[in-house]
Amino acid sequence: MPSITKIKNVRYLFIASFLFISVYLSGQNTIVYSIDLNKLTHDKLSVQVKTPKFKEDQIDFFFPKIVPGTYANYDFGRYISDFQAFDAQGKSLSVVKKNVNQYQIKNAVKLTRITYQVDDTWDSPEIDGEYVFEPAGTSFQKDTLFALNTHGFLGYFKGFEKNKIELEINKPTFMVGTSSLKSDLKSSPTQDIFKANSYYEIVDSPFMYAKPDTTILKIGNVEIVISLFTPNKTIIAEEIAQKIKPLLEAQKNYLGGNLPIQRYAFLIILSDNLKNGSYGALEHAKSSFYYLPEGDISGLGQTILDICAHEFFHIVTPLNIHSEEIGNFDFNQPKMSKHLWLYEGLTEYAAHHMQLKYGLIKLPQFMQTIQEKWETMQMQFDDKIPFTEMSKKVLDTYKDQYSNVYQKGALLGFGLDLLLRKESNGAYGTQQMMQDLAKIYGPNKSFKDDELFDQLIQVTKFPSLKEYFNNYVAGNKKIPLNDWLNSIGYEIDPNKKDTVKTLGFDYQTLNINSETKRAFIGSELGINAFGNELHLKAKDELVSVNQLPVDLPNFVKNTQQVLSNIKAGDLLTLEIARSNDKGGFETFKLAAPFQFTIQASRKSINELILPSRKQIKLREDWMKPNP
Question: How far is Cα of residue 415 from the mean position of the Cα atoms in its chain?
């Protein structure tokens, strides 16, 4: 017996030693990042990285060129300076900067620590390159706001993206940090500690630090955190929470009654100075980051609902449904998926369809949204480009076509939903299709890009989808919107007209030049009869109207002021900037007596006078909530 006991003890000792070594090695492989929000020098933050042990003679440290959901080459390495590497004794190691995003560290076997400085993207006009859309960027405002999209200041070791991560954030005691990640129990009033399973997870988890205006909702078993920053306190987080609560309940029901997450964070920043004139949000698997114009809940309510509805649905795509290109995302040499129609288009459609199904909007409002997307698609984008081809080449060849995912992409979702409902006698639509697809895949299982169409046909059991995909998604056949509308007893009435006041162009055709920060007319199709009298041209950039500036901060206020006061026959003067053959701009003043514009009605989608029983049934099946 004693000998057996001895053997047992030796075995336990071996197991305990093995566990200790495993935990020790696991700790060694963790990459630890540290930043201090108390120490902002020349608007820069310092970042320190404690590294794992490397066996390589040299190792490459990268900053992202692009991150999921942005579809633009941002080159976050532009914002990095004073990059240094050290051994355990604090001695500098040789570092070679290979390109804007890549640093090569020599003698990496001795590497223990990296340090560098980082500028924020919101307030660094001296840094050349593509404008970083605010929801994808960073802002460092001492004692006020730190908008921390982690991909904007955390780099990664090539080949070690799946190592565990620890992020230490030292902070003022009056600031509260919010994220989808919960702070570790070791955190204190002056330091938050967050842990992630990989670099992929940490860069999918943005943070916002500010004086607290945070509230929490419970939707089913999910904790929903809403954190708000607004410079003039025009709104509070609780008002937003009450506004979006019915929306989130409806989304839960739309997704089958259960949400595939335990915690979700809405990080919302309102601005009283939209520097680039644009606003919106960036989705993440368990959070979304918002940059919106400041206002009260009555003015911002529907905007918040529409954007939140879209972003929250991304808990399905890409969290549970994504291609290998996203599942194994390469931050510096990305391969783009050809299925933006699924990730963004179908998500945008579901955001509006869900509000209709659960009574948050009425059918006329939904139809007005469909019409706006139809018109914007035709005025701003090239409808002859197959959507799959546009998706694959969205970073370069078709960069200017990306926003069509919210127009044509949503219409493709509408058409697919109606086709599925028709084929299933109303019992099955895209709502159920996405639930079934999520059961096959999930957070850790990707689909192959070239197999998705076949997989959808197999999942739905409707071979007719092949023709739909070939014609409208992989092909460039014109969308038969009127046929789709007819199937539910509606039609587009091309003869319905509105008489309106305009400045000679349709607002839906406007785009923003990120370099000049001016609005410009994106297409000849957006210029109306009055615009022709003014001799406006596509690409003209707007400078002033009747001597009032129409720069981005003043655009809405001053254009509305002119249009509300002007009468037929009054002289209207537009100052525009027009590009010349030298790569610059020349300014012109265009003037003409003001005239009203007769245009296609914004409410041209109407119910048929005598819809058939079949059409009414399909409409009711398409609109009804889940059983």
Answer: 23
Q: Show Cβ contacts of residue 281 under 8 Å, excluding neighbours closer than 6 positions.
A: 135, 288, 289, 290, 291, 292, 307, 308, 310, 311
Beta bridge partners of 498: 599
Q: What secondary structure, in 3-state letters, does 537-551 show?
A: CCCCEEEEECCEECC
Q: Summarize pLDDT for 42-66 with one digit per residue, the tens.
A: 889 999 999 999 998 999 999 999 9
Please, which residues have CB within 8 angstroms of residue 239's CB and are 6 or more apart in sequence? 297
Full set of structural domains in the chain with CATH: 30-315 (2.60.40.3650), 324-492 (1.10.390.10), 497-600 (2.30.42.10)
| pTM (predicted TM-score) | 0.85
DSSP conformation class of 506: -
Quote the tokens at residue 55: 């066996």
Provide the pLDDT for residue 364. Answer: 95
Instruction: Calculate the alpha carbon distances from 356 to 250, 360, 362, 368, 624 in Å.
Output: 10, 6, 6, 12, 9
DSSP state letter for 502: -
Q: Please identify every stretch of the chain with a pLDDT value under 50, giving residue numbers as ranges.
A: 1-27
DSSP characters over 226-289: EEEE-TT--S-HHHHHHHHHHHHHHHHHHTTS--S-SEEEEEEEEES--TTS--EEEE-SSEEE
